[in-house]
Amino acid sequence: MDLKGKTVIVTGSSRGIGEAIAEAYAKRGANIVLNARKPIAEEKVAHLESYGVTVKTLLGDVSDFETAKEIVSQAKELFGSVDVLVNNAGITRDKLIMRMDEEDFDATYQVNLKGTFNMIRHALPLMLKQRAGSIINISSVVGETGNTGQANYAASKAGIIGLTKSVAREAATRGITCNAIAPGFIETEMTDVLSEKIQEQMLTQIPLKRFGKAEEVANTAVFLSENSYITGQTISVNGGMYM
Ligand code: NAD
């Protein structure tokens, strides 16, 4: 897909990987719908607009079905189409399973997996009518490998891979692609909270011997949207951590 003038919704784009994804699409000339639960700094919006594109912020919790519907329908009203959906909003509630509360499991599932479903459920009918569209879901390397202390998160991210493949099969006849990206350890505020000891341990598992950058995930999303013959795939951006 040629991204110039297209409409791209990026959930959870107030910071980190989502912010970098929004910028990568803006650089290609796409108009951007930013989303997060809390207000997004005006400088960030202005920075994206400096690429000569239109940027709108639609705040709201993607884990709520009706809110997701509202985000998609407002995006369509503002821009006339929804061409790319990047489901990036995600949370962690790390604990060993023996100490994990029901709430830790439910909250992670609700945002990461249900939120992704909610947005696809509302955006896909528009894409089917357009006979074009690109859906990118942000999974994680731990959805492929599992991880101690992340049973809830890993389950939600593995679920995203199954969801991605199913949507890819259902939407393919109308020229719509759906892919997942499984980042490894990417330097963001989500990973800054991990102790130095854990960060050092992680480095020993990464053949490329460094953490990834948000831009490296963002460029992969753009690549997938631009390639109309790749669908149902999970692309690892993990420095070789899992092959
Ligand atoms: P982050 O915590 O820095 O940013 C998360 C964003 O999601 C924020 O903008 C937040 O406001 C938003 N968000 C959270 N819950 C939301 C909700 N219910 N509705 C709408 N927005 C919501 O995280 P990040 O490190 O930038 O990660 C982005 C995505 O990449 C997540 O899905 C995460 O699981 C995934 N990921 C990150 C890493 C990493 O190493 N950082 C690795 C693998 C996967």
TrEMBL record:
- Residues annotated as the enzyme's active site: 153 (proton acceptor)
Q: What class of enzyme is it?
A: oxidoreductase
State the source organism's domain of life.
Answer: Bacteria
Its biological purpose is as follows: Catalyzes the NADPH-dependent reduction of beta-ketoacyl-ACP substrates to beta-hydroxyacyl-ACP products, the first reductive step in the elongation cycle of fatty acid biosynthesis.
Protein's recorded name:
3-oxoacyl-[acyl-carrier-protein] reductase
Which pathway does the protein contribute to? Lipid metabolism; fatty acid biosynthesis
User: Is Protein transport found in the keyword set?
Assistant: no
Q: How does it assemble?
A: Homotetramer.
Under Enzyme Commission nomenclature, its number is: 1.1.1.100
